[in-house]
Amino acid sequence: MSYAKKAKKGYYGIAEYRDQNGKRRQKSAGCFKLKREALAGAVKLEKELEQVNLDLQHISFSDYYERWYSVYKKDSSLSDISKSRYRTFFKVIQGYFKNKELVTIKRSDYQRFINWYGKNHGSSSVSKLNGAIRSCVSYAIDDDIIQKDFTHNVQLVFNKKSKRKIEYLTEKELHTLTDALVNNLNHYNTSRYMILTAIYTGMRKSEIQALTWNDIDFLHSTIIVNKSWDDTKKAFKSTKTESSNRTIKVNRSLLNHLADLKTNNTTMVFQNVLGTIPTSNALNKALLSIMSSCGIKKQGFHFHSLRHVHVAYLLSKGVDIYAISKRLGHSDITITLRAYSYLIDEYKAKNDTLIIDKLAEL
User: Fold this and answer.
1) Same domain membership, residue 66 and residue 52
2) Which side of the chain, N or C, has fewer Cβ within a 10 Å radius?
């Protein structure tokens, strides 16, 4: 039976109900100014909880995940790529657990699931799947369908061979590619200018696509990043994270090349004469074609790889990792360290030798 409990600034409404196992439980309906309001709120919550238990007490894990996605994620501000990932995870859960009820899943069941999934997936995929499920399970606890988080203390397992080796260019190859771009620039073909911008700034593809002339300060040699581009909807969207909003210092030669595009008389920097922005496919096709003409062969290389190339070059020149992190728009330096650990380890090995040599000079 629900009741009202005296508080410092009013009354708490406390709903009493029985969970799917028949165990009596309590939940607060919030704080109210008047006792009768608190009691009414508690009664209302009690009815809602009883209905939830009736509706969801035998729901399958996959059905609850789908319900959770539809209610909390589908209409959110998440990117289309993130939403697609959530839908893919649903198929994985459905394929493995079938119609297994959510309340029957134990930690050992979930560990076996992670072991199974991890056999053919890398650490990033396993981590993202586990993150989505952990969030879903926390909502199931709030809905009083389950009492314990079966994802807690589960060991993530992944296939080390599934980790994609990221290709990046040597300094000689980078110079070769840059020269090939500069020597064949044509304001009608904006893809080449976008590739050049990625090399010199380390910006994400969607950030480069979204640039307008108002974002470029030719006087102070900076580029302002405050939005990104939706390739599918052909419209502006917010940046990946709040920290992605930043001002990047750029070299004068890049700005001189970009100034050529003003001839196209467009609002957006990389709109071509047809008024369209090169898509991801168009950029990758152009990049691979230019690299092929230069005799540069890299397996799995694509436009985003240029961001890694930018980092590799700056690290090779001794630029501080903190400065690189800010330039990339990462909210925390640990994100940079994690994303580019393979590069940092390489330069650490080189610097270890340099450190020993310098200490020998003492």
Assistant:
1) no
2) C
